[in-house]
């Protein structure tokens, strides 16, 4: 008999007796405010997936010897719920997150799960906590699915027990301004044969100190370069895209290919798809090096550079520090106060219009 | 006023009311049996280190949004307590573990701690649970200090709250036999600019699947190769050492240098020091490639190869699979049943004799 998989019809809901007050949109900062409830689904190798449970948000009881606390057996996702003008709450391409979570979890030997049923449970959680979905354009309810290995066992085998859980955090705009990046070729976020293309917790801890170091220097985030040719990979919380006139004189939107180094971002994929639909310029996934970018800046061929990710949606890059020198990146030459470049803004608006239900699209999935 | 650091004199001890039965040495397997108590020391940026606490072993209450569960802000150590014939319980070079834990924790922005005071608390924990220190040569009490970021905050800054905790597991011999390694050049455990030289949980999760895959092929562990020249790095749970006649005709004990890729093992360091004291052959920390090793095997110059680490102490390698071919490594040509090669066994015996108090040494530190 096959073991039970996740079954949304068995969902148990226990509501909190101490609901939190509503959050004021103005005071929201990313990832610090949580809602009333969380979703927990336990797995054991012996009995498969247990009945999903929505219960009050609160501490998890984790064995000191659990895989997650010793060997970082953990993977996560980032998604958002958006409130449309008519009150509908939409998720954005959630099946891409389900698929990526599945891919990431298999990489660290966490058990397989029914993606459809898990998504159904997430929708139920969002419905239970729907009062926390902000009703303001640009604001949303961030959804964090976490998948952790909970078996207490120091043997480097695999975790025979696991917890898949989801919690929610109402958020405002992540970077409501342009950002300055610091190109780092000394440390590496990811490498060939590594795990940079999986959303594992272990990719993030090593990036904290380098990130804090560049903040101390007055920059916002790191632009991760790789190898001797200084291949431009990603920002770590965002994929990185440039819009330029390439060396062949063509207008081109280009970002790093999914070569095993790069996180396959849902926003990245969506922006590339939108731009390809337009068909107005070349859209490429290929490796670009920092020296190529510097040449383009020097030649006046760099039009815009921006980051893309679920948390930030998009954000324009106004400056990149590289090998002792700071390079200005155009944002919007027609408007010195612009927070987004023209192409960045057009992509952003099209995406937000889908997410907030202004433009009908199969990418918006009502809860 | 400086914030309070760890203060062993403030240690609070709460003993369990449900002590576990003694373990039978014969049934011990690595890292599955835990003792009655654990040590917990909490930190907050606001108030510094709280009073250390020894309390019954049990689940930790961790916020779902804690850094450790989302971004793998976690580092650990592995140490052992050994019971000497006269009943004394020794730690082995514990200050090296304290220093490495400090180095690892700074890499992921966990707070600094007083190494001496923390070690004092660990000694107290071992004393409280001393009945679990096995009284048999080759058996010991494994000590696992874990250091985790506990602040609930999804921002990729650093964790302003942390928990340093220690738990204990009585263990028997890790590999009571020779091991077969599978050389892996397709995936990478570590990388220049990466974090392979720090004992971070995030280095271990990505190695689980590759390790299970080679177990399914009949091998014990992976020998991690790096780069196009297939530099022989380490085993992942052990450093890797070879004893050979090098291409200049010299007898040489050689292991990978501490070049940022390699975990700086305490056992590795100790074995190199012992062999250097003997002064009988060359002892080198330098890069060796897999093709060089294959040539030495073909020429009959390979004498022994072995892994070294706290969990296993040493274990001889009898076979390495590389690029479609299996290569036999000599263990002890004079004894087909030998589990250790002659040099490996001599190093092991000298080390164990220090650890179990047979040979007086400043490396053995009584609790």
TrEMBL record, chains A, B:
Q: Which Gene Ontology molecular-function terms are recorded?
A: branched-chain-amino-acid transaminase activity
Keyword Transferase (UniProt): yes
Q: Name one Pfam family in it.
A: Aminotran_4
Q: What protein name applies here?
A: branched-chain-amino-acid transaminase
The record's similarity note reads:
Belongs to the class-IV pyridoxal-phosphate-dependent aminotransferase family.
Q: Which GO terms describe its biological process?
A: amino acid biosynthetic process; branched-chain amino acid biosynthetic process
Recite the UniProt keywords alphabetically. Amino-acid biosynthesis, Aminotransferase, Branched-chain amino acid biosynthesis, Pyridoxal phosphate, Transferase
Q: Supply the InterPro entries for this chain.
A: Aminotrans_IV, Aminotransferase-like, B_amino_transII, BCAT-like_C, BCAT-like_N, BCAT_family
